[in-house]
Automatic annotation (TrEMBL):
<feature type="region of interest" description="Disordered">
    <location>
        <begin position="151"/>
        <end position="174"/>
    </location>
</feature>
<comment type="similarity">
    <text>Belongs to the LOB domain-containing protein family.</text>
</comment>
<feature type="domain" description="LOB">
    <location>
        <begin position="2"/>
        <end position="103"/>
    </location>
</feature>
<dbReference type="Pfam" id="PF03195">
    <property type="entry name" value="LOB"/>
</dbReference>
<protein>
    <recommendedName>
        <fullName>LOB domain-containing protein</fullName>
    </recommendedName>
</protein>
<dbReference type="InterPro" id="IPR004883">
    <property type="entry name" value="LOB"/>
</dbReference>
Length: 174
């Protein structure tokens, strides 16, 4: 049996009782390296063991995303990404309002109201109610999910290097 990414990174024997084998396959050793660097291997194992089996893949996904965000931005982590997205959303809303005002000058208020009504009744325009209670997680196929997309930002974040500020490696030796 080939070891999972977690056991491979920690240079351990991967037994049949390994809780991380489903969530950190051998191909995702870098993913576990980030999680191990931020949370610690024992903590991740304890978190996964204390989580119900149907939620474990979501917990592993969240840990991987948060660890990657923390490695990329040690100060703000994933909160920095949220701030960035909210700032972008605010700018886009301002641009949309400006475009609506400019368009209203040419087509008149009656046509604008009709256009706004059509846009709000569009079934493809989905809105998310953030105050609504969370529903049970939907079972998605996570085999093609990549928690580490290339993040391009206006603040030009640096990508994580092979060593952190203290010189400890966070990537497995090659």
């Amino acid at each position: 049996m080939t070891p999972c990414g977690a056991c491979k990174y920690q240079r351990r024997r991967c037994g049949s009782d390994c809780v991380m084998v489903s969530y950190f396959p051998a191909e995702s050793i870098q993913r576990f390296a980030y999680v191990h660097h931020v949370f610690g291997g024992g903590n991740v194992s304890n978190i996964l063991r204390s989580t119900s089996p149907d939620l474990r893949k979501w917990v592993a996904r969240a840990l991987a995303y948060q660890a990657e965000a923390r490695v990329r931005d040690p100060v703000h982590g994933c909160v920095g990404l949220i701030w960035e997205q909210e700032e972008t959303l605010g700018i886009l809303k301002e641009k949309l309002e400006k475009a609506k005002r400019e368009l209203a000058q040419y087509v008149g208020p009656d046509v604008m109201q009709k256009m706004i009504g059509q846009c709000s009744s569009d079934p493809h325009a989905k809105t998310v109610d953030l105050k609504a209670p969370l529903s049970a997680p939907v079972d998605f196929d996570l085999s093609s999910w990549d928690p580490f997309p290339a993040w391009e930002s206006s603040s030009s974040r640096r990508l994580p290097s092979q060593a952190d500020a203290k010189g400890k490696t966070i990537a497995p030796p090659s």
